[in-house]
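Input structure tokens:
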């Protein structure tokens, strides 16, 4: 009889413990908030292989660099590469009695918009971890594309001015937007976010 009672008590305690764990997980999931993103700046911009971070006008290019860029444009090409640096907030810090939840971006499909024009589509396959803290994390998106494919109708001067606006000395990331569908990894499993739009205006 005693053994039966102990077994029954053990079963009840196991069920109660399991129920509490389920409640804790459910509470954590219900209070889980996706990461917040904001475009911080653009760096390492190269126009046909020419770094432009110190340039603000067409006149800042050397004759050799101008000829190199002009030759590419004459071939209906203008390869560029740059990095979009995105600031990231993890709001799951445990504030207000919620559970602190570290979040990892497992992968992210994204589309780049420049000056309102949809350009390239890419996928981030590398993982980035963001602890449950008030610190701002960073997510670099490496971009490699042909600017002529999307803005060739602007001509030589228009293309260079656009590049300078994006990655030159007085660069302004407001012309850039990202539409992304990130997949987050949490202690409770993977979570796919609805499509989000990332700009330089504010954390979304």
């Amino acid at each position: 009889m005693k053994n039966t009672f102990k077994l029954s008590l053990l079963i009840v305690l196991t069920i109660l413990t399991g129920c509490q764990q389920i409640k804790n997980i459910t509470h954590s999931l219900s209070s889980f908030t996706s990461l917040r993103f904001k475009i911080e700046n653009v760096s390492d911009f190269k126009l046909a292989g020419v770094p432009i971070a110190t340039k603000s006008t067409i006149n800042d290019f050397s004759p050799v660099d101008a000829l190199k860029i002009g030759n590419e444009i004459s071939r209906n090409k203008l390869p560029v590469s740059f990095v979009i640096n995105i600031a990231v907030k993890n709001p799951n810090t445990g504030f207000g009695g919620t559970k602190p939840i570290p979040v990892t971006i497992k992968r992210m499909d994204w589309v780049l918009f420049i000056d309102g024009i949809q350009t390239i589509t890419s996928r981030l396959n590398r993982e980035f971890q963001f602890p449950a803290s008030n610190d701002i994390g960073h997510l670099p998106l490496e971009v490699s594309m042909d600017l002529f494919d999307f803005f060739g109708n602007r001509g030589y001067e228009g293309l260079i001015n656009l590049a300078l606006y994006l990655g030159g000395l007085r660069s302004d990331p407001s012309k850039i937007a990202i539409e992304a569908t990130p997949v987050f990894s949490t202690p409770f499993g993977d979570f796919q976010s609805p499509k989000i739009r990332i700009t330089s205006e504010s954390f979304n």
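The first strand starts at residue 36 and ends at 47. Residues 35-198 form one domain.
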